[in-house]
Amino acid sequence: MDRITASQVFVNVAERGSMTAAAEALGMSRAMVTRYLAQMEGWAGARLLHRTTRRLSLTAAGEETLARCRQMLEIAGQMPVAADMPADVPQGLLRLSCAQSLAQDVLASAVAAYLRQYPQTAIDLSISSRTVNLVEERIDLAIRITNDLDPNLIARPLGHCASVVCATPAYLSAHGTPRTPQELALHNCLTYSYFGKSLWQFGHKGRQVAVPVGGNLSANESSVLLTAALEGAGIAMQPEYSAAPWVANGRLVALLPDWRPLAMGVYGVYSSRRQMPAALRAMLDFLALRFSDPRHWPPAAPPVPRRGTARARSRTA
Fold it and tell me: Which parts of the sequence belong to the HTH lysR-type domain (predicted)?
């Protein structure tokens, strides 16, 4: 972890007497402040703060560390910025993280367009279906599709993700075509994230229903379920950006046209608003425009999340 940033966090906590106040002043999440403090105590090899229910106070080791952190920050503040490296020009390496289907169907072309627009930047795209730790894995920006975003994270809304329930003509010919959401419970449904019953949510003319579905295949990556659906394994709920080409060419049939699956939010998640690099700010602005352009991203109605159902419908970057 960055020792300069950790020193800034520790000094702010010591001066304000509260991790929450320090987080607000630094534009960080409280969870991020906690991580920096834990790392600072690890470097110091001693406990730096007395924690009570009302206020934080410094230990003897904390007093000594505070003085050294202030000296470090003073020295860092005196370092000149190179004249040929304007702070407002996007440049340098950005490390991004997202799920496989989003990377191959959407972000690969978006990143290529971003690099053409900002030729002094470089992108390292990490593909993972799990929720990454931004600080520990040194990720600048994670793109997440979810209705259950951690409130401690700093996130910029980018758009909404529509979904479609679909299956092959062969599967429907063999097993019948569901006409209502409730009939999905009688079919082999390919579920995301965990094995067993999953809730698929739908809306129609202001009415919402949640149907428990299950089947003989689950996976933590939607592109795997899409491939299985294309092989006739069952019915899948897929993000529209992935399924649309296969529906258009007839390989898949979109089901329940009168019922809209619950949409999810698309977010750009990052660790701190403080001293945000120009390349990261430019990427967030670029993606916000990209996700609002129907040429690159299918529009969807805003999601209406329900507490307690996100486990069944969440894709993380």
Answer: 8-59
